[in-house]
Design goal:
A hairpin with a 5-residue loop joins strand 12 and strand 13. The chain has a single domain, classed as outer membrane lipoprotein receptor (LolB), chain A (Clam). It has 4 helices and 13 strands. The protein is an alpha+beta fold and about 240 residues long. Strands 1, 2, 3, 4, 5, 6, 7, 8, 9, 10, 11, 12 and 13 form a 13-stranded antiparallel sheet that branches. The protein starts with a helix and ends with a strand.
Amino acid sequence: MKRYCFAFLALVLFSFVGSAQKLSANEVLEKAIAFHDPNGNWSNLKATFKVIMETPSRPKRTSIIAMDFPQQVFTLDVEQNGNTYAYSFDKDSCEISLNGSKDFSQEEAEEFRLNCERGNFMKDYYTYLYGLPMKLNDPGTQLNPEVQKKTFKGKEYLVLNVTYDAEVGTDEWYFYFDPSTYAMEVYQFYHDEDKKDGEYILLEGLEDINGIKMPKTRAWYVNKDDKYLGTDTLEKHQTK
């Protein structure tokens, strides 16, 4: 009797693994999005959250990020080493302030890298990383149809490979998903994969932001030598 039970379990397991192997890249992405954004809230997100960045060689940086996609509004308020600066985007307009004032010198602008081009970069940066994996459906994203299986840090993952149209980006990305829950747990990018440059990011924990399961912590490392770069931690923002 036990032999038949074991055979039955093995057959069920084989069938499960076999079905997982047949999933296309689009199907894996759909399941990952269903895990992270089960109610489809991303496209109409209106939320404010805090990101605390800690690196070995720089003071702690605290960023308050507000996104309102329906109104096309994005604000970023940063505090680091006793100074504060802010970017505010309302549709196509861009405003910058330093320590509460919009009147600052050219020297201060250069010291703190305050310009609208930099602000747009930060807006795209936060929108992209906290919008994953949903952002993989954006125009200009080239999803490799092959689902890879890779073992990373001792765990096996389903991996999606993504490149971008030239006007969108030039890096090559890999996204690692838990094969049972489809939670995104690692992502990795290369400028030139043959040179093993670029970075990988380990994701741990989840924070619910308006119904979206975003990574709680992201730890950044260099691909080539595993050098640790820093960790950012996501928190809900408590308004005063």
